[in-house]
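[Q] Does anyone have a clean structure-token version of this?
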Amino acid sequence: MEKLDSKIAIVTGANSGMGMATVEALSDMGATVIMLCRNEKRGQEAYEKLMSRPERKIELMLCDLEDFSSINAFVASVKSKYEKIDILVNNAGFISLDRQTTKEGFEKQFGINHLGHFLLTTKLIDLMYEGARIVNVASGAHKVGNIHFEDINLEKGYNVIKAYSQSKLANVLFTREQARRLRDRGITVNCCHPGAVATNIGIDRKTGFGKTITSLLKPFFQTPAEGARTAIFLATDDSVKNISGEYFYKCKIASSSKKSKDMELAKRLYKLSENLVQQSK
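[A] Here you go.
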């Protein structure tokens, strides 16, 4: 097991599932881990569970990834307390059967899964130095995805697969372009497909819809700890310290879609994302 005693890590979506498993693993390797959570009650409950081992160095900080002003406030708070960030694991994910929008009016899966993490990552870059690592949790769903530049918020013909796969393709394209931009600074950016994992991502928090399906399929899914393994590997393992801009599955570089390797598409999405988050200033 790698030792991360002087490292500072941030994990998004840290109060359950793979996020919580990632916090646990990184803190057990010695890192100081900032748990980025949206919900104070759920975040506090997760924090208390994790701190059943009091030697862990964990801090709970609240941030809503669908709200640009919340992201900016989180970044300002991190910068006031920490001089550097060594590891950023962009793990939080959102999926919804019906079309919802963020505070800024973006389709919510694109708004949280991509734009929220885009803004968070680009704002934290100046706290990252040579050897720092960014890990984006993507999905095999990116393979059926398109970036709908003409209707990025999917106001016409929304469906959950179209929206989710767009956001996950965006994760892979962002990884490729961010890796290119940071290569000279020695900061690595990789993404991964966690596999099929039994988490709360598809469960409607208000109605509980999806709970029955998830519990029926649970025997066929990986545990959150198994699903988090590749992200943890990318965040910590020596063998990947010089690898950047790649898509991993089961701790190995894996094949991704042709679109996800299109660097012109990646640059176009990056430019669009920069313009869309300008309103956060």
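[Q] Thanks! Anything notable?
[A] Confidence is low (pLDDT under 50) at residues 199-214, 216-220.
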